[in-house]
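Minutes, methods subgroup
Present: GH (chair), OT, SY

1. OT presented the first of two proteins processed in the latest run. Sequence and structure tokens recorded below as shown on screen.
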Amino acid sequence: MNPKALRQAIAGELESNLLPFWRDRGPDPVHGGFIAAMSHDGTVLADAPSGLILNSRLLWAFSALARELGDGRDLALARRAFAVLEDRFRDREHGGYVWRVDVDGHPLDRSKKTYGQAFCIYALSEFHRAVGDPTALERARQTSDLIEDRARDSSFGGYIEARAADWSVIGDLRLSDKDMNAAKSMNTHLHLLEAYTNLHRTSPSARTAERLAELIGLFDRHILGGDASRRSLRHFFDEKWRPCSDNRTYGHDIEAAWLLGEAGEVLGDAEVLARVDGWAVELARSVLAEGMDTAGGIASEGRGGTVVNRDHDWWCQAEAVVGFRHVYELTGEAAFAEASAAAWRFIERFIVDRVNGEWHWRVKADGSVDAGEPKVSEWKGPYHSVRMCLEMMRRLVDADGVDS
């Protein structure tokens, strides 16, 4: 696919579908803030609780859009999202951000999940990049300090999954009902890496540089550890980094391929960058060989070199478009450019909801849409889709000729 045509198609999807949906239907006209839940057909679930992940990702998305596109509508929505995070989610007693609030902004779950705090750092630093708000940057730094002081494991390295409301030890460490009750996870460390990358990009410091380097080292020793060819990520671990699971998710693997590279670039260490770029290539080769079907769909889960869940989730597809393009830029191998374009074609053909707007959560292995999954939820927002569009538009801006 011609890269200019690919850029035009992705930009068209952003402008004609994703932006109108989130600009027009995202804000909650009744309770303020943003709609917390919407069924697959667009029905708003009026009394649904609101989650930290959706709201921090909304702040990131509108901030990134305002910075990249310069549209005042996105800037206004970024300010709205910052106010939601500040007024409804920030814990003024113990610091950090609560996990879930009710429709009126009263806390329902005050626990401090490290994954959630990481997305606040990611979003707050992006808001500062967009508008230069010193309060947002200070909040990002404060949250980082809390994570380092209260969630970092000084004995074995890395970060504990969750703390109680007051940052004390908590028994239930799960991020969601689908996750293991394990002390540490790849997912939390991947998105803390992403958060510290953006914080270091925004406001470089010796501390964020040290933590970025340490996180990359954790991927080396533990999350990619034990796999000599660096071809998949381990998921769950105990405190001592002993693996507790044996599955892989292809979406995380291809997402990590480019997020690790981004961290290496921002860190500015040539030796580290060369190392993570090597991992990216191996991860992408493995996902391409094992996890992508002939239609360009990315399978959900594998184990022991075999796909065990062939469903296609929206976020895996979005990350594949960027991840494969990133590795094409590293290697010049046409197969990766074609894989990126194929993942996009799958989105166009199967994932885009041309009836109710935005994207379907999942297309099942048989090609049918899973209408039981929501259009908007604590976990379904504009982060993966909008980020893919912005990232690819930037990467393809000077592209010419045919590379796939």
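2. SY then presented the second protein from the same run.
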Amino acid sequence: MSLRHLLFAFGLGIFASLAAAQEGQTVRPEVGKPLQSAIDLLKGKKAKEALARAREAQSVPNKTPYESYLATRVVAQAAAAAGEPGVAAKAFEEVAGSASAADAERRQFAAAAAGQYYVAKEYAKAAELAARYIKLGGTDKSVHTIYVQALYLGNNFAAAAKAISADVEAEEDAGKTPAEEQLQLLANAYLQQRDTAGYAKALEKLVTYYPKRDYWLNLVHGIATRPGFSERLALDVARLKIETGTMRTGNEYLEAAQLSLIDGFPVEAARIIDKGYAAGLLGTGPEAGRHKRLKDMAAKSLAEDKKSLDADAAAAKEAKALFNEGFNLVLHGKSEQGLQMMESALRQGIAGKRPDHVRLQLAYAYHLAGQNQKAVQIFRTVQGTDGSGALARAWAIRLSRAS
């Protein structure tokens, strides 16, 4: 049932109740006549006149509980039709709690009250009545949507995030893809609470199902700016940015290339610079000369590196040198030999105090070698809280979609 149907689906039910009242409970003429007139006016789409007649019935003194129930019910319907959601909401809420209403009617009235409170922008009340509908056994998805949106719009972000997260998990368990708008709302609910961990998880969901550049941009930026992030991972962040197309400035390319040169990987530095030129972010503007100097430096270092590549690899004995030379071989396209050296270094205990960073680099090397399935397996073993775990999860998402 749509929100519109929730708001206006009760006119015929009112008429039926009045007919039933003649057979059972007594409705005095001074109450029944204006109510019947109001119903006729509603059927003729004269909502404002109907509301006036319903209020006449409501103003009759000493009404029985059943008369009060019927009068309030007609007021609720007429007010909803007349565009007075605040009046309609209160009336629907009242009849939802009436002893004269059947169980199924209580659910419907609670749903209608939730919808009218939502239209009136009384979001706390809308969430309250939608929750009551659900507690009474209601299962209509549109009411659940009102509940979630009312929580969010009422600034109850923690409750909204909890509800949306449960919905997302249920859809995933059922093999369904959560709606993009639903995941956006979840991300925003966490963001409003300054819950960086929750926000990151929501972004991971977004890039999993809707891998748009903006979502990747926000995710990678969040990883690099999260408290506790290790600057040691700056080059790893740049590698993910290049993979996801989220490099934005020439300086980002320059810094990444410089870091790669410092680490002893001129072939990677040269490729990063080439990508910056191809993107139009290097080689232009007032810094073009600086860009050219770094490009020449990388080319010179690469030429020297190629000359000594095999000799350096053969001479590497200590675990760290073995690992780095192996990675360099992978960068140069000698993947089989390079990966063997990196794995050997891992067995020798290179991981030490930084096992997550080492596995992050090893997984990346397998990706460069075209072995994405193996890369994903290793990425999923990285659990570091210094940013390495978050980077690894992002890589696993990216490569799982690509494979």
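Chair's summary of item 2: Confidence is low (pLDDT under 50) at residues 1-16.
Next meeting: continue with the remaining queue.
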